[in-house]
User: What shape does this take?
Amino acid sequence: MVATLSLEPAGRSCWDEPLSIAVRGLYPEQPITLRAALRDEKGVLFRAHARYCADSHGELDLARAPALGGSFAGLEPMGLLWAMEPDRPFWRLIKRDVQTPFVVELEVLDGHEPDGGRLLARAVHERHFMAPGVRRVPVREGRVRATLFLPPEPGPYPGIVDLFGVGGGLLEYRASLLAGRGFAVLALAYYNYDDLPKSMEAMRMEYFEEAVDYLLSHPEVKGPGIGILGISKGGELGLAMASFLKGIKAAVFINGSMVAVGNTISYKDETIPPVSHLRDQIKVTKDGLLDVVEGLQSPLVETKSVIPVERSDTTFLFLVGQDDHNWKSEFYANEISKRLQAHGKEKPQVILYPEAGHYIEPPYFPLYKAGMHVLVGTNITFGGEPKPHAMTQVDAWQQLQTFFHKHLGSKN
Assistant: This one.
């Protein structure tokens, strides 16, 4: 008997696509261990393993067979990806260059020892971040520093501005994946990139307005309005964009804030000062990490730091991890909802995800439970439990696409 490891799609797939994994040519009921590994662009190794038993025909299909333990247990066809852990503590899996894939190595070992079994079969699979034909266009227009991703065929397509958090720089992997789903997406840098400011002391909405105008005027972007997708600090800035700027029809915010945090937000002659930090409310977990979830003054106390969302005519979707320890995302989403309704605006959609943490990413990214927070200056806990967080990412990805297609339309 020669064991074979088969993957569907074979050879390559997009990172947000599910992958079917099966093993054939085993002995009936044979105990085996499956291992998966990838290296990120910084050379850090991510790994996961799970123990299985073949069926009575000597076959194993991860869609039907539960894992008996290891990095995860139970029926988890994609567990070998989402349960990966780095060999360097507090390290987040980020795709830095979307023009190259992550290469995943899969191995089948005899027996239930993840490091001791004889190698029975192996396969290498490329997980890509640009679907075939997706176009990547670097953008330097006026002050705007960004990358525009366009689907393969000529548009116009619904347009989205994509914003990440306090790490700064330019992250493209969410935008590139969404372009494969029929959107024109502008991955927008706003500090610590190219000739943009190195720090975040002041966030001027005029910069973001330039980016909105650029996208709205692009021949492959369908009007009359565009969308915003923002996570964490990107959600906070996106909320300010929706409050101050015209042309934003729909917005999805993942664990965002309703107040200015760490810097002023200004537009024309208006300035929103940052909310106060409550250093005495920061706690230390049993693992020695900071828990900063109580570390910001309430917007009900410091109303001058609240972003004036009641001015917006945007339709909102809030995706909230209920175990977010970065800040009080659920409280913020509920307060924004109350504020909008008190001013006669449409009630936003709020989806709560139990046991999901702060960094809700595209599907199959491993949970980033704890790590460096740029503003805090040390490692903090971001919250979340691996399995519910993984399920959240799959659902949230579908929800945001459905929402944008509903409110921005599809390709003409």
Q: What stands out?
A: Residues 221 and 396 are 24 Å apart (CA to CA). The first helix runs from residue 79 to 82. The chain has a mean pLDDT of 97.
